[in-house]
Specification:
By secondary structure, the chain is of the alpha+beta class. The protein folds into three domains: about 60 residues, no CATH class; about 120 residues, Immunoglobulin-like (Sandwich); about 120 residues, Immunoglobulin-like, CATH 2.60.40. Strand 11 and strand 12 form a beta hairpin. Helix 2 packs antiparallel against helix 4. The longest helix is centred in the last third of the chain and has 23 residues. The chain is globular.
């Protein structure tokens, strides 16, 4: 916006055909806005309330608790990814092969496989998202089952149009955050106690707010390592200032741990309940538009102003 203000001050619009110029700028802004906005229409998406995303540091615990488990190497993929899924079936339960079923966001089956675990109960398989059956964006459900309904486990992952930005895709120990500029960013996190089942995040560049939805059980505290280029909070003098943090709509205190030039680490007390929505508000956030789009916008506005000036100079003055 600073660049646009400088252009505005440099060109005295009062000397040009103001109405034509303003109309052209408004049309250009609307066109660019619509080009970045995605609107989808279709069937209602199916949400999996029983799905569990197992963090890497809790895999051994889940293998002890459940007779059958499965996890993926990430939470977010695009349509050109190879998903590696790994699982464990307790050896005393290996009386039947493992049936793998993957359904898309509207409940249609995209993959069915049958897996035989090794003698220790471990198994692994890959899923290719390039198939036309995987064309829908959204939440996919991966279910594994061996024999009876009691020996089944569900996890989920998200497919997006593309994974862009400085981070290719989030690890299982990071929260995938979708920004309103269409990009996916990763927030590393850890917990002190308990179990995490699912995580989801959103980043709003207009309100400079990051929302993290975390579902789990018996969680004590959660530590977030927030990259400064994603979200930061600064005073007018340029020094670090406090974030505004809310849990389920109520303001809470937090403990700031280590901070460096790249990130800020904060620790939050997990609220009572199996699901908490944290809102973290800062003063600086990723730009709403990418650098290329901004350059195109600036160049287009300058072209309109120059054309307006030329048109104005050719008018017959009385």
């Amino acid at each position: 916006m600073d660049i646009l203000l400088k252009i505005y001050k440099y060109y005295d619009l009062s000397r040009y055909d103001v109405h034509i110029t303003i109309l052209a700028v408004l049309i250009l802004s609307l066109t660019i806005t619509l080009s970045f906005a995605g609107t989808s229409f279709g069937e209602k998406e199916i949400k999996c309330i029983n799905c569990v995303q197992i963090p890497s540091y809790e895999i051994d615990l889940y293998k002890e608790i459940f007779p059958l488990t499965v996890w993926t190497d990430s939470h977010t993929y695009d349509h050109f990814s190879t998903i590696t899924a790994t699982g464990y079936l307790k050896p005393q339960n290996t009386v039947a092969p493992i049936l793998v079923v993957v359904t898309n966001p509207i409940g249609n089956i995209v993959t069915i496989q049958q897996i035989i675990p090794d003698s220790d109960g471990n198994f692994s398989f890959k899923l290719n998202t390039e198939s036309p059956l995987w064309s829908k964006d959204g939440e996919y459900i991966l279910k594994v089952q061996s024999g009876a309904e009691t020996r089944q486990f569900k996890t989920n992952f998200t497919l997006v149009p593309s994974l862009t930005g400085s981070v290719n895709k989030c690890t299982i120990d990071s929260i995938s955050v979708t920004a309103n500029n269409g990009r996916i960013y990763c927030i590393p996190y850890s917990i002190s106690d308990g179990l995490v089942s699912t995580t989801k995040g959103k980043l709003n560049s207009d309100t400079k707010t990051m929302t993290l939805d975390i579902k789990g059980q018996n969680i004590g505290t959660i530590t977030l390592d927030i990259p400064r280029y994603i979200l930061d909070s600064k005073s007018p003098a340029g020094s670090d200032s406090s974030f505004v943090v809310m849990a389920n709509g109520e303001m809470i205190e937090y403990e700031e741990l280590e901070s460096d030039s790249d990130s800020r680490q904060i620790k939050l007390d997990y609220q009572i309940g199996d699901k908490v929505s944290f809102e973290i508000v800062g003063t600086h956030i990723i730009p709403e538009f990418g650098s290329i789009a901004l350059l195109i916008l600036v160049a287009s506005i300058m072209s309109i102003l120059i054309v307006g000036k030329s048109f104005s100079n050719r008018l017959v003055k009385f």
